[in-house]
Amino acid sequence: MGSLDGLSKGLIGDTLISAAAIAYIGAFTPRYRRNLLSHWLQLCQTYSIDVSENFELTDFLAEPIEIQRWLNFSLPHDKHSIEVILVLLLLFMYFFYSSRAPGGAMGERKTERGTATTVCQLMPMD
Q: Measuring CA to CA, which residue among 53, 49, 23, 47 is closest to residue 36?
């Protein structure tokens, strides 16, 4: 249970930093990205927002098996390339999610009967 407590403790800060990264780091060099992430981590610490002890953007946004699959398809084995693919994939998925098209290649939308709740499941294309 201690591991689950540790994960949930940093969830808000991890999510905040990941969202900022997806929105802002796309066009920057690896060095500048590292500086931005470090700055955001310091801001979280300044404002007492808990972040996981060993926060890594790629670990938070993707499963290791998914990253390994990309590497098997000749993605270069550096953190910058993995971050670029993650940001592009998430932006691509967001574009399809927000496009109001029910279903489609990237996702499935269902409205729960009797409620205004819409359930969406995003699925990467193979």
A: 23
CA distance 73 to 87: 18
Q: What is the CATH number of domain 2-101?
A: 1.20.920.20
pLDDT digits (tens, 9 = 90+) for 45-61: 999 999 998 899 888 98
Per-residue tokens: 59: 């670990």
For residues 8, 119, 116, 16, the Cα torsion angle rounded to the nearest 10 degrees is 40
What's the pTM value of the predicted model, to 2 decimals? 0.66
Q: Which residue has the tokens 């390994």?
A: 68
Where are the chain's structural domains? 2-101
Cβ burial of 20 (10 Å; 0-12, 13-18, 19+) is middle
Catalogue the long-range contacts made by 66-71 (C-beta closer than 8 Å, 24 or more residues apart): none
How many whole angstroms separate alpha carbon 64 and alpha carbon 14? 17
